[in-house]
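Raw record, unedited: peptidyl-tRNA hydrolase
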Amino acid sequence: MSPPGLLRAGLWRSPAMSRCVLEPRPPGKRWLVAGLGNPGLPGTRHSVGMAVLGQLARRLGVAESWARDRRCAADLALAPLGDAQLVLLRPRRLMNANGRSVARAAEMFGLTAEEVYLVHDELDKPLGKLALKLGGSARGHNGVRSCISCLNSSAMPRLRVGIGRPTNPEAVQAYVLGCFSPSEQELLPLLLDRATDLLLDHIRERSQGPSAGVSP
């Protein structure tokens, strides 16, 4: 039986095809929110974007409604937000290929790059610092670079979640692929809540009128 959240949102999971099937687009705006990361490594710094998506799904009451869609190689959950609809996406491809999942989902839902939010880790901001920007370069982030390449656009709004940078440049790869320390984990619940608030406030504002400005 299909998750009720997907049925209410206009997306249902076909047992025969084991994939999500789209129904007619509902009235109001629709936004795709993608949490970038590596599947199977949810507790690492590099996958903090996926952790934000998990908190967003809980806040919207669709945490039990994730369904795998083989066409875009991702887990999807749909949720209403006022008159708008959010498509939550967690790629099942590695970070360097996240863009293939995001671009395919955008195509499936008929969305432009401006209607796709990317949530990802940011080395150049300390843990706990958030920034929401509209468009721009990948700033060295391979997941964002993949999305820019596959969407053929750099216009996607991005929520950058600070994870800090190690003092030794040679330790960056091990650092981002490592798990948060116990002291860092104590900060995560509040960080995920703040990130969710920032996302929802920004999407609500854009759903009601012209695009909102860039947050500091």
